Amino acid sequence: QLQLVESGGGLVQPGGSLRLSCAASGFTLDLYAIAWFRQAPGKEREGVASISSSGGNTNYADSVKGRFTISRANAKNTGYLQMNSLRPEDTGIYYCAASLLYYSSSGGYYSEADYDYWGQGTQVTVSS
Question: Most-buried pick from 6, 16, 81, 98 (CB within 10 A)?
């Protein structure tokens, strides 16, 4: 079965950190760009970070620059999102996704239609 499985979400206080993982099974992740999306309550899903298949290129939404770091370990078929200095507005369900395209001229880095595989999501709650 071809799937992505996220883990590492939870409840954290403002200013705290979490590390999300995205493990692929049934396919080789190193051919794919990986992105993390999130959906806050009552809001549309948005892209927050992406990384190319080799790991040599990354992109971040302005709201997370300097606080989040995306990485990957192709030997482990896994991607990661390190989240530091978390804020209440970072609360939401975080999804990882895989695409053969790192960037498209029509959709940019986070066009959901370009992503072939999606995880089920992991909840991140930032609250005191």
Answer: 81
Give the separation between CA 30 and CA 77, rounded to whole angstroms.
7
3-state helix/strand/coil string of 36-101: EEEECCCCCCEEEEEECCCCCCEEECCCCCCCEEEEEEHHHCEEEEEECCCCHHHCEEEEEEEECC
> CA torsion sign, 15 to 79 to 63 to 45?
negative
Instruction: Kindly tell me the burial class for residue 120, based on how many C-beta atoms sit within 10 Å of its own C-beta (0-12, 13-18, 19 or more).
Output: exposed
Per-10-residue mean pLDDT of the chain, 128 residues long, equals 94 98 93 97 96 95 98 96 98 97 87 94 98
Strands, sheet with 68-73, edge to edge from the N-terminal-most edge strand: 3-7, 18-25, 78-83, 68-73
H/E element, 4: strand 3-7
CA angle, 40 then 31 then 121, to 5°: 20
